[in-house]
Amino acid sequence: MTDITALIAAFTTMFIIIDPPGLAPVFIAMTQGMNAAQRRAIAIRACLVSACLMMVFLFLGEAVLGFIGISMDAFRIAGGILLFLTALDMLFQKRQARREDNAAEGLEEHHDDPSVFPLALPLIVGPGAITTIILLAGQAQGASDFVAITGVILLVLFIVLLAFLASNTIERALGKTGLNILTRVLGMLLAALAVQFILDGLRGFGIGG
Protein backbone atom coordinates (compact mmCIF):
# COMPACT_ATOMS: atom_id res chain seq x y z
CA MET A 1 0.00 0.00 0.00
CA THR A 2 2.91 2.35 0.64
CA ASP A 3 4.17 2.08 -2.96
CA ILE A 4 3.21 4.97 -5.19
CA THR A 5 0.99 2.91 -7.52
CA ALA A 6 -1.17 1.62 -4.66
CA LEU A 7 -1.42 5.09 -3.13
CA ILE A 8 -2.52 6.58 -6.45
CA ALA A 9 -5.15 3.84 -6.82
CA ALA A 10 -6.40 4.46 -3.26
CA PHE A 11 -6.57 8.21 -3.82
CA THR A 12 -8.35 7.77 -7.16
CA THR A 13 -10.92 5.45 -5.64
CA MET A 14 -11.65 7.75 -2.69
CA PHE A 15 -11.75 10.85 -4.89
CA ILE A 16 -14.18 9.29 -7.35
CA ILE A 17 -16.51 7.83 -4.76
CA ILE A 18 -16.71 11.07 -2.74
CA ASP A 19 -16.69 13.26 -5.88
CA PRO A 20 -15.76 16.72 -4.50
CA PRO A 21 -16.78 18.60 -7.70
CA GLY A 22 -20.19 16.92 -7.58
CA LEU A 23 -20.68 17.97 -3.96
CA ALA A 24 -19.96 21.63 -4.69
CA PRO A 25 -23.36 22.52 -6.25
CA VAL A 26 -25.16 20.60 -3.49
CA PHE A 27 -23.23 22.61 -0.91
CA ILE A 28 -24.29 25.81 -2.66
CA ALA A 29 -27.95 24.78 -2.57
CA MET A 30 -27.76 23.88 1.13
CA THR A 31 -26.10 27.14 2.17
CA GLN A 32 -28.14 29.59 0.14
CA GLY A 33 -28.63 32.91 1.93
CA MET A 34 -25.64 32.40 4.23
CA ASN A 35 -22.67 34.74 4.32
CA ALA A 36 -19.09 33.70 3.57
CA ALA A 37 -18.18 33.17 7.25
CA GLN A 38 -21.19 30.89 7.85
CA ARG A 39 -20.43 28.86 4.72
CA ARG A 40 -16.79 28.50 5.74
CA ALA A 41 -17.72 27.31 9.24
CA ILE A 42 -20.17 24.73 7.87
CA ALA A 43 -17.61 23.47 5.32
CA ILE A 44 -14.90 23.02 7.97
CA ARG A 45 -17.25 21.35 10.45
CA ALA A 46 -18.59 18.95 7.82
CA CYS A 47 -15.07 17.87 6.83
CA LEU A 48 -13.94 17.43 10.45
CA VAL A 49 -16.96 15.26 11.27
CA SER A 50 -16.37 13.25 8.09
CA ALA A 51 -12.72 12.70 9.03
CA CYS A 52 -13.68 11.38 12.46
CA LEU A 53 -16.26 9.00 10.98
CA MET A 54 -13.82 7.73 8.35
CA MET A 55 -11.15 7.04 10.97
CA VAL A 56 -13.66 4.92 12.91
CA PHE A 57 -14.42 2.82 9.83
CA LEU A 58 -10.73 2.60 8.89
CA PHE A 59 -9.57 1.21 12.23
CA LEU A 60 -12.66 -0.67 13.41
CA GLY A 61 -14.47 -1.62 10.20
CA GLU A 62 -12.60 -4.89 9.60
CA ALA A 63 -12.93 -5.90 13.27
CA VAL A 64 -16.70 -5.47 13.01
CA LEU A 65 -16.75 -7.65 9.88
CA GLY A 66 -14.74 -10.33 11.66
CA PHE A 67 -17.09 -10.21 14.66
CA ILE A 68 -20.12 -10.94 12.49
CA GLY A 69 -18.25 -13.59 10.46
CA ILE A 70 -17.78 -11.85 7.11
CA SER A 71 -14.44 -12.44 5.36
CA MET A 72 -12.60 -9.60 3.61
CA ASP A 73 -12.80 -11.44 0.29
CA ALA A 74 -16.59 -11.66 0.60
CA PHE A 75 -16.70 -7.98 1.51
CA ARG A 76 -14.49 -7.13 -1.47
CA ILE A 77 -16.98 -8.80 -3.82
CA ALA A 78 -20.00 -7.16 -2.16
CA GLY A 79 -18.20 -3.82 -2.00
CA GLY A 80 -17.20 -4.06 -5.64
CA ILE A 81 -20.82 -4.66 -6.62
CA LEU A 82 -21.94 -1.67 -4.53
CA LEU A 83 -19.30 0.57 -6.09
CA PHE A 84 -20.28 -0.64 -9.56
CA LEU A 85 -23.92 0.30 -8.89
CA THR A 86 -22.70 3.71 -7.71
CA ALA A 87 -20.76 4.05 -10.97
CA LEU A 88 -23.92 3.27 -12.95
CA ASP A 89 -25.77 5.98 -11.03
CA MET A 90 -23.00 8.44 -11.91
CA LEU A 91 -23.06 7.44 -15.57
CA PHE A 92 -26.82 7.92 -15.79
CA GLN A 93 -26.89 11.07 -13.60
CA LYS A 94 -29.02 9.46 -10.87
CA ARG A 95 -26.46 10.05 -8.11
CA GLN A 96 -26.54 13.85 -8.23
CA ALA A 97 -30.33 13.90 -8.24
CA ARG A 98 -30.37 11.62 -5.19
CA ARG A 99 -27.83 13.85 -3.43
CA GLU A 100 -29.98 16.90 -4.09
CA ASP A 101 -33.05 15.07 -2.73
CA ASN A 102 -31.11 14.06 0.40
CA ALA A 103 -29.91 17.62 0.79
CA ALA A 104 -33.45 18.97 0.51
CA GLU A 105 -34.73 16.48 3.10
CA GLY A 106 -31.86 17.35 5.41
CA LEU A 107 -32.52 21.06 5.14
CA GLU A 108 -36.15 20.57 6.13
CA GLU A 109 -35.04 18.95 9.41
CA HIS A 110 -31.76 20.81 10.05
CA HIS A 111 -32.15 24.10 8.23
CA ASP A 112 -29.81 25.96 10.64
CA ASP A 113 -26.73 23.74 10.29
CA PRO A 114 -26.46 21.06 7.59
CA SER A 115 -22.81 20.25 8.37
CA VAL A 116 -23.40 16.90 10.12
CA PHE A 117 -26.57 15.86 8.31
CA PRO A 118 -26.84 15.70 5.39
CA LEU A 119 -23.36 17.01 4.47
CA ALA A 120 -21.09 14.71 6.50
CA LEU A 121 -23.66 11.90 6.50
CA PRO A 122 -24.65 10.67 3.98
CA LEU A 123 -23.28 12.98 1.28
CA ILE A 124 -19.56 12.72 2.11
CA VAL A 125 -19.43 9.56 4.24
CA GLY A 126 -21.94 7.52 2.30
CA PRO A 127 -22.17 3.75 1.76
CA GLY A 128 -19.65 3.90 -1.09
CA ALA A 129 -17.07 5.77 0.98
CA ILE A 130 -17.53 3.42 3.95
CA THR A 131 -17.14 0.40 1.67
CA THR A 132 -14.00 1.82 0.06
CA ILE A 133 -12.39 2.62 3.41
CA ILE A 134 -12.97 -0.90 4.75
CA LEU A 135 -11.67 -2.40 1.51
CA LEU A 136 -8.51 -0.29 1.71
CA ALA A 137 -8.07 -1.25 5.36
CA GLY A 138 -8.31 -4.90 4.35
CA GLN A 139 -5.38 -4.42 1.96
CA ALA A 140 -3.17 -2.79 4.62
CA GLN A 141 -0.17 -4.86 5.71
CA GLY A 142 1.04 -2.84 8.70
CA ALA A 143 1.03 0.45 10.58
CA SER A 144 2.73 2.28 7.71
CA ASP A 145 -0.09 1.28 5.37
CA PHE A 146 -2.72 2.63 7.77
CA VAL A 147 -0.77 5.88 8.02
CA ALA A 148 -0.69 6.07 4.21
CA ILE A 149 -4.45 5.40 3.92
CA THR A 150 -5.13 8.01 6.60
CA GLY A 151 -3.08 10.48 4.57
CA VAL A 152 -5.08 9.67 1.43
CA ILE A 153 -8.39 10.13 3.26
CA LEU A 154 -7.31 13.46 4.75
CA LEU A 155 -6.04 14.65 1.36
CA VAL A 156 -9.38 13.86 -0.31
CA LEU A 157 -11.26 15.59 2.52
CA PHE A 158 -8.99 18.62 2.12
CA ILE A 159 -9.97 18.71 -1.57
CA VAL A 160 -13.63 18.47 -0.51
CA LEU A 161 -13.07 21.46 1.78
CA LEU A 162 -11.45 23.42 -1.04
CA ALA A 163 -14.36 22.49 -3.34
CA PHE A 164 -16.84 23.75 -0.74
CA LEU A 165 -14.94 27.00 -0.23
CA ALA A 166 -14.63 27.50 -4.00
CA SER A 167 -18.05 26.07 -4.87
CA ASN A 168 -19.34 29.24 -6.53
CA THR A 169 -16.24 29.51 -8.73
CA ILE A 170 -16.33 25.80 -9.66
CA GLU A 171 -19.99 25.98 -10.64
CA ARG A 172 -19.43 29.04 -12.83
CA ALA A 173 -16.29 27.58 -14.43
CA LEU A 174 -17.66 24.13 -15.30
CA GLY A 175 -21.31 24.93 -15.82
CA LYS A 176 -23.99 22.26 -15.74
CA THR A 177 -22.66 20.58 -18.89
CA GLY A 178 -19.12 20.47 -17.55
CA LEU A 179 -20.26 18.92 -14.26
CA ASN A 180 -22.27 16.29 -16.16
CA ILE A 181 -19.26 15.36 -18.31
CA LEU A 182 -16.94 15.16 -15.29
CA THR A 183 -19.40 12.95 -13.40
CA ARG A 184 -19.65 10.50 -16.30
CA VAL A 185 -15.87 10.27 -16.74
CA LEU A 186 -15.42 9.59 -13.03
CA GLY A 187 -18.23 7.02 -13.22
CA MET A 188 -16.36 5.09 -15.91
CA LEU A 189 -13.19 5.04 -13.80
CA LEU A 190 -15.12 3.91 -10.73
CA ALA A 191 -16.75 1.08 -12.69
CA ALA A 192 -13.32 -0.24 -13.67
CA LEU A 193 -12.07 -0.01 -10.08
CA ALA A 194 -15.20 -1.82 -8.86
CA VAL A 195 -14.57 -4.70 -11.26
CA GLN A 196 -11.01 -4.92 -9.94
CA PHE A 197 -12.30 -5.23 -6.36
CA ILE A 198 -14.62 -8.05 -7.43
CA LEU A 199 -11.80 -9.89 -9.25
CA ASP A 200 -9.56 -9.55 -6.17
CA GLY A 201 -12.30 -11.05 -4.00
CA LEU A 202 -12.87 -13.95 -6.39
CA ARG A 203 -9.14 -14.68 -6.44
CA GLY A 204 -9.26 -14.87 -2.65
CA PHE A 205 -11.74 -17.73 -3.01
CA GLY A 206 -9.53 -19.40 -5.60
CA ILE A 207 -11.75 -18.41 -8.52
CA GLY A 208 -10.19 -16.95 -11.64
CA GLY A 209 -6.56 -17.77 -10.84
Automatic annotation (TrEMBL):
<feature type="transmembrane region" description="Helical">
    <location>
        <begin position="6"/>
        <end position="30"/>
    </location>
</feature>
<dbReference type="Pfam" id="PF01914">
    <property type="entry name" value="MarC"/>
</dbReference>
<keyword id="KW-1003">Cell membrane</keyword>
<protein>
    <recommendedName>
        <fullName>UPF0056 membrane protein</fullName>
    </recommendedName>
</protein>
<keyword id="KW-0472">Membrane</keyword>
<feature type="transmembrane region" description="Helical">
    <location>
        <begin position="119"/>
        <end position="140"/>
    </location>
</feature>
<dbReference type="GO" id="GO:0005886">
    <property type="term" value="C:plasma membrane"/>
</dbReference>
<comment type="similarity">
    <text>Belongs to the UPF0056 (MarC) family.</text>
</comment>
<dbReference type="InterPro" id="IPR002771">
    <property type="entry name" value="Multi_antbiot-R_MarC"/>
</dbReference>
<feature type="transmembrane region" description="Helical">
    <location>
        <begin position="74"/>
        <end position="92"/>
    </location>
</feature>
<keyword id="KW-1133">Transmembrane helix</keyword>
<feature type="transmembrane region" description="Helical">
    <location>
        <begin position="42"/>
        <end position="68"/>
    </location>
</feature>
<keyword id="KW-0812">Transmembrane</keyword>
<feature type="transmembrane region" description="Helical">
    <location>
        <begin position="146"/>
        <end position="166"/>
    </location>
</feature>
<feature type="transmembrane region" description="Helical">
    <location>
        <begin position="178"/>
        <end position="199"/>
    </location>
</feature>
